[in-house]
Amino acid sequence: MYLTQITVSNTDLQxxxxxxNYRWKQEINKSVLHPRFRxxxxxxxxxxxxxxPGIPQKLPWGNWGVNNRVPxxxxxxxRYIFSLRANxxxxxxxxxxxxxxxxxxxIQKWIERKAKLHGFKIVNFEMIPLGKQISYKGRKPITHYAxxxxxxxxxxxxxxxxxxxxxxIGPAKAFGFGLLLLKIIN
Length: 186
Fold this sequence. Notes:
Blueprint: E1 2-9, H1 10-15, H2 21-29, E2 36-41, E3 45-52, E4 63-69, E5 79-87, E6 89-94, E7 97-103, H3 107-117, E8 120-137, E9 140-155, H4 158-167, E10 180-184
Antiparallel strand pairs: 1-3, 1-4, 2-3, 5-9, 5-10, 6-7, 8-9
């Protein structure tokens, strides 16, 4: 697995019509198969952290940093500082098929449930609700409800945790949600 940082001027993004999570998904998928990414929108630039199974192909925009290989034993520790941008929704199931997604009312229960499902427990965390984010696939709106979580986690099931670290957590992973950023606590 590789972690790459890309910095792009917001002027360049406007010129290239990269304006929402769906367009980011389209652009990032040109670079590498099965990526996970996270956006950090700043006043003049946007930073992208790209987590991918292979070395991404540099695209003709932005400043592409070094491709840092993630060591094979990186997920073998017990405690980490974590950061997660999640689409905190649930799917309403209706007779005859899937229904729409709705924002989760109790975000703390959402993150605790996801943690247990993915082999870790939350020691402590802060959350910042970012609200509704709308992307467009053609004229069809795609709605996400973004929340940033930052804190400390403790691993309870190594296999489930490794899978979550590699695959992501929650819905809308292809749209820049679910990438579990980790820093080892010695």
